[in-house]
């Protein structure tokens, strides 16, 4: 049962890490669920309550960073919520129509469109879009690091 539980957990981890780049996948939640599935299947032999509470707090941190980094990038360059939400919508639409390239072009175009809808001039909307992209990129990197730490913590808790 241990091997089956580990395989399921690792599959959840892989899907969760993909969620760092794809906004429609709840990455940190999937990683946490993978750990929970492992715990249930192994009757919580190696993972305790404190571990799961700590992991839940780490997952909450991932979502806080995700929101705050994009919002900070937009605000730092003079943007509004239009740029932030436009970039999120642009990511989803970009993925649908452009595949993986949509991860880069979608948020950029979405932020520009959002600020144009907010009646900003094109040059200002472009500058804000760059700032929003920098915020989202830094947020993605931080999310990925936190999620990798979550996974390392999981393996450390099991084997040490």
Labels describing this entry:
single chain, mainly alpha
Number of helices: 6
Number of domains: 1
Cα distance spanning the termini: 20 Å
Question: Tell me about the biggest sheet?
Answer: none
Give, in order, the helices and strands: HHHHHH
Write down the oligomeric state.
single chain
Write down the overall geometry.
Answer: elongated
Could you explain how this protein is built, in words?
This protein has helices at 2-18, 27-41, 49-76, 81-98, 102-117, 122-159. It starts with a helix and ends with a helix. With 160 residues, it is mainly α. Helix 2 (27-41) runs antiparallel to helix 3 (49-76) and helix 5 (102-117) crosses helix 6. It has one domain (2-159). It contains six helices and no strands. 82% of the residues lie in helices and 0% in strands.
Question: Can you summarize this structure?
Answer:
The protein has six helices and no strands. By secondary structure, it is mostly helical.
Q: Helix and strand layout, with pairings?
A:
Layout: H1 2-18, H2 27-41, H3 49-76, H4 81-98, H5 102-117, H6 122-159
Helix pairs in contact: 1-2, 2-3, 2-6, 3-6, 4-5, 5-6
């Amino acid at each position: 049962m241990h091997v089956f539980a580990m395989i399921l957990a690792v599959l959840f981890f892989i899907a969760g890490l993909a969620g760092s780049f794809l906004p429609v996948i709840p990455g940190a939640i999937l990683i946490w669920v993978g750990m929970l599935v492992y715990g249930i299947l192994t009757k919580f032999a190696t993972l305790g309550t404190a571990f799961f509470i700590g992991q839940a707090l780490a997952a909450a941190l991932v979502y806080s960073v995700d929101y705050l980094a994009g919002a900070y990038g937009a605000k730092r360059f003079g943007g509004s919520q239009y740029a932030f939400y436009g970039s999120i919508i642009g990511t989803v639409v970009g993925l649908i129509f452009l595949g993986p390239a949509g991860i880069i072009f979608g948020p950029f175009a979405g932020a520009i469109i959002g600020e144009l809808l907010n009646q900003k001039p094109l040059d200002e909307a472009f500058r804000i879009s760059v700032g929003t992209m920098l915020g989202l990129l830094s947020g993605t990197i931080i999310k990925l690091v936190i999620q990798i730490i979550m996974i390392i913590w999981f393996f450390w808790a099991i084997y040490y």
